[in-house]
Amino acid sequence: MTEYPRDEISQRGGDPEAISDRYRDQKPDSISVSWTGFLNTIQNEDTTIEYINAIQETLATLKRRKRERDTVMPISALWETDAQQQLITEYAFAIPTREALDYLIKQGPLVELGAWTGYWAYELDKRSGDITAYDIDPILDPWFPVQSGDQDVLLEYGKAETLVLCWPPVGPMAYESLLLHDGDVIYIGERPGEGFKAFGDMRFFDVLDARYEHVTQIDLPSHPGAKDNLHHYRPLD
């Protein structure tokens, strides 16, 4: 990551001392999805999305295994020990829906940072979405061609592109991306509060609150214990 002069960062709205603390004490009752809520949601989702189809097939396999082995272990425990992390590793943390994908396509062209497996980009490209994906350490054999790059690549783009961050990694990447990008931002993941997992950092959410208008929220089917949503933010004038 390039070292930018502090006065340049401050001009982009990045002075941490001037940022709101709104989320630091925010404690919603609960934002995590239960096992029952997960099952009820996932069984009604679009199986043309490969992640959704894989989840439904995995659940059917676990049910059959439990029946054949007559095990006392509940399906939820089998899911947690045998399936969930494997699916996350193969596809992504967040689970896309047709509504979310259609919405993202309308916000194109898209630039995704931290694309990891490239799965969301793959589903968007399959539907003729305009997306370029980057990751600081691209994996071998991704779903979609993921280029090597960190937040510095945003200097090549402008307001015309929408920045996409899906479960950005722990650390300053997401926050610094806001300082280097002048356009809209779509964040996919959880918000601070109970159930909030460790990704990004609080400065990222503080800047979003202080410098952006929250345009849209789309609920996503979430793995048990999480609560992912798609959030669209637009810079304030």
From TrEMBL:
Bias kind Basic and acidic residues: ranges: 1-10
Protein origin, superkingdom: Archaea
Span list, region Disordered: 1-22
Name of the protein this chain belongs to: Class I SAM-dependent methyltransferase
Lineage: Archaea, Methanobacteriati, Methanobacteriota, Stenosarchaea group, Halobacteria
